[in-house]
Automatic annotation (TrEMBL):
SMART domains in the cross-refs: HTH_MARR (SM00347)
Signal peptide: none
Presence of the UniProt keyword Transcription in the record: yes
All copies of domain HTH marR-type, residue ranges: 10-140
Keywords: DNA-binding, Transcription, Transcription regulation
Protein name per Swiss-Prot or TrEMBL: HTH-type transcriptional regulator SarZ
UniProt cross-references to Pfam families, sorted A to Z: Staph_reg_Sar_Rot
Family: Belongs to the SarZ family.
Species: Fulvivirga kasyanovii
Top-level taxon of origin: Bacteria
């Protein structure tokens, strides 16, 4: 019986995105190990290095993650002394997250990671930029 082409793994959009994500995360790991961060913790830190302070809901929105995923990440980052949490005085349901001095200093150690990743992937920079732009275009459909 001949298979329907739309059910072949190579015809799926989800699989190359999933597999690429796993491979890129694996490439990051040696550098993140040096920082003492997991990949999801690194993503939180990237947003905080950019914004310095924001609410948990703003952070969730930026990372396309739910609160129940972000909360344990923030707890571990707080336990490491990298972030501080503070309840809003206007609305105690709102929690603000900000970098500590230690968290801010970690940024300088992470500066080399993007260039190292590009080198490890060994693809033309222009193709990587095109791929990134297409992924952001795809994600913008979910905002």
């Amino acid at each position: 019986m001949k298979e329907k082409s739309h059910l072949l793994l190579k015809e799926q959009l989800c699989f190359p995105i999933y597999a690429t994500s796993r491979m890129v995360t694996r490439l990051y790991q040696p550098w993140l190990d040096k920082l003492g961060l997991t990949y999801p913790q690194y993503l939180v830190m990237l947003v905080l290095w950019e914004e310095q302070k924001l609410t948990v809901s703003q952070l969730c929105k930026r990372l396309y993650l739910n609160t129940n995923t972000v909360t344990p990440l923030l707890k571990k980052l707080r336990d490491k002394g990298l972030v501080a949490k503070e309840r809003s005085t206007e609305d105690e349901r709102t929690v603000h997250i900000e970098l500590t001095q230690k968290g801010d200093k970690l940024k300088s150690q992470a500066e080399e990671i993007p260039a190292n990743l590009v080198e490890a992937i060994d693809m033309p920079l222009e193709e990587l930029k095109q791929m990134r732009e297409l992924m952001w275009k795809f994600l913008s459909k979910f905002d």
